[in-house]
Design brief:
binds ligand DP6; four-stranded antiparallel beta sheet; alpha+beta; Alpha-Beta Plaits; single chain; Ribosomal Protein S5, domain 2
């Protein structure tokens, strides 16, 4: 094995989780800068593992394989590296061998761009450290990785930290920046560190609108200003709920954000409707279960039809039974993913 390692001039390998936003990033300007701040948490079991090797010095060349095969994603990676070379000139001087795999199935309805660009940015930022002599355990390393991840996909900026993070300028924190995310390391009420996310798969067919095209619809949206104001307000309230342990408020804001995201899409011109009748059925059942049992469950939704059912570890058994007896009938082939809040990215060392 060590013989293999020495064939590379530089090598780095990271595992990076996907994340789910509670306050949604929707709309961007310039180079992947968000119109509004967003807040998310990383998942534990849905992640991408990527390894980057610099095989030899040459003009920039990229070989990319996904799960052992050539991938159409290669063109996007090539474009991404060309952009990053403006930040790190060494990128233009190497032949790259990049390979990647996801822990979750392709059709699982989990956005893979966040974990993919998160993992790739971490590898590149680590290799960059060998050229600039910086410390890859320092917080500034992760800020840089977050910024580089953002250039690939906005939501990826929030995947390189543990637990909850915020991306975008906000009056709440001086650390808030449009360039990179930062982690909410301290002060989160312990209850929220036990969040579970059951991803209920309603429809796994490819999205009719890419997220970039979706963001663009906010540019001339009649409600743009009010949406930005709403996101700021929701972020403030959600943060207060997270530190005080206010579960009711958490539920109110989380569902409001999910439905506002879809309301923005439905009222765009042209309009986009991504939720399906079964998504609405799941929402109604989740709300009914909460009212009937008093068990704190709620939902969030990404730019797609799948429903993320959020609940707490202490209610695991009852929620699982609820999913199995009432919700799976509305899922495509009764499929769902059982995930929860995670501890963030991990460097994978070569053995
Ligand atoms: C609805 O990060 O996928 O999931 O920056 O164009 O790659 P690009 O978009 P992307 O958008 C995610 C939008 C969202 C909300 C969120 O994750 O905050």
């Amino acid at each position: 094995m060590s013989g293999l390692i020495h064939r590379y001039l530089h090598h780095s390998q990271w595992r990076c989780p996907s994340n789910i936003a509670l306050v949604k990033y929707w709309g961007k300007r310039d180079e992947q800068l968000p119109l509004n701040p967003s807040l998310s948490f990383v998942l534990r079991d849905s992640y991408t593992e990527t390894s980057v090797s610099l095989v030899r010095e040459s003009s920039r060349k990229v070989e990319f394989s996904f799960e052992g095969r050539e991938s159409p994603f290669a063109a996007r990676i090539e474009k991404y590296l060309a952009r990053l070379a403006q930040e790190a000139g060494w990128i233009n001087k190497y032949h790259f061998r990049i390979s990647s795999r996801n822990s979750f199935p392709h059709s699982a309805g989990i956005a893979s761009s966040a974990s993919s660009f998160g993992a790739l940015a971490l590898c590149l930022a680590e290799i960059d450290c060998t050229f600039r002599d910086c410390d890859p355990t320092d917080p500034s390393f992760f800020r840089r990785a977050s910024e580089w991840a953002r250039l690939g996909s906005g939501s990826a900026s929030r995947s390189v930290f543990p637990g909850f993070s915020i991306w975008g300028r906000t009056q709440l924190f001086e650390a808030g920046s449009d360039e990179h995310a930062f982690p909410l390391e301290q002060g989160i009420h312990p209850e929220f560190l036990t969040l579970c996310d059951a991803v209920l798969l309603v429809d796994s067919s490819p999205k009719p609108v890419s997220s970039s095209a979706g963001h663009e619809l906010m540019n001339h949206h009649l409600f743009q200003r009010s949406r930005i104001a709403q996101a700021h307000e929701n972020l403030n309230e959600l943060y207060l709920a997270l530190i005080s342990g206010d579960v009711e408020k958490f539920i109110e804001i989380t569902e409001n954000e999910a439905l506002s995201l879809h309301a923005m899409m439905m009222t765009s011109r042209p309009s986009v409707v991504l939720i399906k009748p079964d998504s609405l059925e799941l929402i109604a059942r989740i709300r009914d279960f909460r009212q009937r049992t008093g068990i704190p469950v709620c939902f969030t939704i990404d730019a797609g039809p799948n429903i993320h059912l959020l609940s707490f570890e202490k209610n695991r058994a009852e929620v699982r039974e609820f999913i199995e007896t009432e919700l799976l009938q509305f899922c495509e082939n009764r499929r769902w993913l059982d995930d929860r809040i995670g501890r963030g990215p991990e460097k994978i060392s070569q053995t």
